[in-house]
Amino acid sequence: MESPPFFFDCHRCGLCCRAGHGRVWLREEEVPALARERGLEVEAFVRRFLVRIGARLSVREEADGRCALLEGEACCTVYPARPGQCRSFPFWPSLLAGGPALEEAAEGCPGIQRLPEGDPEPGLRALARLLGGAPGGSAPCPLARGAGRLEASALEADLACAAGEGLASAAGESGDCPFRRGVGCRLGAFRPLACRGLDPEALDPLRRRLQDLAGEQGWPLRGGPWPRLFRDRRRAWAARGGAPPAPGPVG
Prior knowledge:
Layout: E1 7-8, H1 15-18, E2 25-26, H2 31-37, H3 42-49, E3 50-53, E4 56-59, E5 70-71, E6 75-76, H4 84-87, H5 93-96, H6 100-108, E7 112-113, H7 121-132, E8 150-152, H8 154-163, E9 180-181, E10 184-185, H9 200-217, E11 224-226, H10 228-240
Antiparallel strand pairs: 1-7, 2-4, 3-4, 5-6, 8-11, 9-10
Helix pairs in contact: 2-3, 7-8, 7-9, 8-10
């Protein structure tokens, strides 16, 4: 069986249940189990949570697009009996085919990681040149100073996978950055832009160039929180067969 054109690890963020509008279609035989999860008779469950469209049943959605069966941001109230359409996401035929449908899904789901289709080495080398010439390569780690959420791009995370092979510590698996060493960083000049403590005047032009570079080299434009993004990308590359190639000389 052919591997899917992406790697997936659910972040339990609930975005797929509350962002945008769409339909969650049900099979008639799924309804009794859903009703039991809510402690309702089937008829009462259907009236409260479902809508019939032609000959088909769909879960009702609120005016803002969120699923009527969702509580809070990420609590599915019928999770053990959730519909097959939810259970199989994102391994739907329309997404397994790749193309625009997968791109749109990946933009809205941080758990979907797409790898570049061509040779990644030119893109990694270009980013290594950009980061190598950027300021802040030896700045103290923002996480060591109590910084909150740091955002990185998929291209930056992939360079860390390549250049940082053998440098990442197991400690990062618990949530901290695997490249952090005290207040320093094992990645050195290849650390993400968000980790450099730059002011917006210096940071914004570099981020624009990074986005341009990702688009030119065929990388997904969506990033994510560091260091979770690094761990996801490393697992995506491992599923493909190993880490991306080291960028080599960048002079």
